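User: Can you predict the 3D structure for this chain?
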Amino acid sequence: MRGWIILAATLALAACDSGGVPPPGQEPLRASSPQVSANQVELRADGLAAGTDAFYYAAGQNEVVAAVQRTLGLTADVSTNEECGAGPVDAARFGEDLILNFQDGSLVGWFVSGARDDIAVAGDVQVGTARAEAQEAKGFAPIADSTLGEEFALGDKVGGIIEGDAVSVLYSGTQCFFR
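Assistant: Here is the predicted structure, written as structure tokens:
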């Protein structure tokens, strides 16, 4: 009987993926830093921090959604896109500005389209950053012939779109863009 209890406890712990274990070769995410307050979400190239909780891509959907809901005080509206080129994606929308993408119950990407005090992207480029300032940012590279508009990359993990004279969208990870 004791063996069954230990097995059940082990399986229960294995099912709870908080995203706290980094992928091989990466340092652990710091749960919070001076720029991440208890009521702020910071979107990062490899995941996100929601207040004092931090998650790499591959973190569990339930844990990530709960942390972001708690941090922003918003309820997620979750829908499934069966026609995504990467395969079915669950999109958790928080208001009009933030979408978190999940596949098979794991965080795989984020998309932000509004400038808010409680949502920030790690680094110098934010939604609303002036075109000239974004173009001077480290790693900035235009994406030629994009059907999405004036698309750009910031290094190899974050992308965005410029409309008019400012950044209108930033994203990372798996997206359901139809090109």
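The CA atoms of residues 62 and 105 lie 8 Å apart. Residues 2-15 form the longest helix (14 residues).
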